[in-house]
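FIELD: query
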Amino acid sequence: MGGETNRRLIQKYGHINLRLRSMFARANLQQVIGLALLFIVAALISPVANRTGQNIFLSGANLTDIMRQVSEKGIIALGMTFVILTGGIDLSVGSLLALSATFTANTLTKWKPGIAWGTEIFIVVVLALVICTAFGTLQGALIAKLKVQPFIVTLAGMIGIRGFARFLTTNANIDIGFGDDISALFAKTIQNKTIVICTFIGLAIIFGIILARTVFGLQVKSVGDNPVASLYAGLPVTKTLIYTYAISGFLVGIAGVLHCAQNHQGNPNDGVSYELDAIAAVVIGGTSMTGGKGTITGTIIGAFILGILTNIFRLKGVDINVEMMCKSVIIVIAVWLQMPRKVKNAARRQVTINVQ
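FIELD: result
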């Protein structure tokens, strides 16, 4: 029965997804053009170094810094893509990141198992990922089995998980990486630019392939496109939703470990508004907030658009409040450009009727 269901699913959606979408397929032309134009504008308006006259934005150090900064939130956005494709949302990712970072720092500084440092770090990282995956799975189960709205479940998760992270450390910030202990070795190893960037690239490739080339990826899109029809077609809607939120939790756990190493701390108050950045990257990348349509490639482009914007604003010394306002306008424009022409025309007619 399961094999027959999978075959029906592939026959129904395969001609759309398997032919047009893969990790290396062409992303939406608007997104590619937008990223290219933004890159050019950023290069043109970038300040130059006083001594060498070099364009700061185009310097190798700055470009790799952009990739490193994009990597952390980009990893979260990968999981958010799966969630939004099902028609859901995950507001708990910022709190989960804080929990992952806090647990990692707290355990590395207090746990003394007397084993090899590499083994200890591996165990701590695995435990952090297991905890975050478990919270993601729990939220997915509440959404799928109890039929509670994703917004409500993950909003509660955002509050509760943040409280749990603060409880673990009595609301204290845990500094790591400034001595010769195991936490210093962890920070020195994991904070490396190459490791951070390669982790993002590797995960993007893996989950891009999962989304575009596997039955599970087709099921995610199908559930988001029409959950009722998917249920009647015999698709595992409940399992798909649970797995999707588990993936989101797992990826946030990885981002939290990287965050801990790069910032040399586990702070239960970190990660605030990260969920908004992740959602923005997904939406700018072309994923529909109603579910069923989107790609990992688009999300990567969206993450880099936000990363370049943030970088050039900082290089130009733009006030952070102005930066936030500009980003909000860009998000609205991005969503508007991705709306079908029929929907735009209907919206215009509705506005005209209301004005009259």
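FIELD: remark
The chain is about 75% helix and 0% strand.
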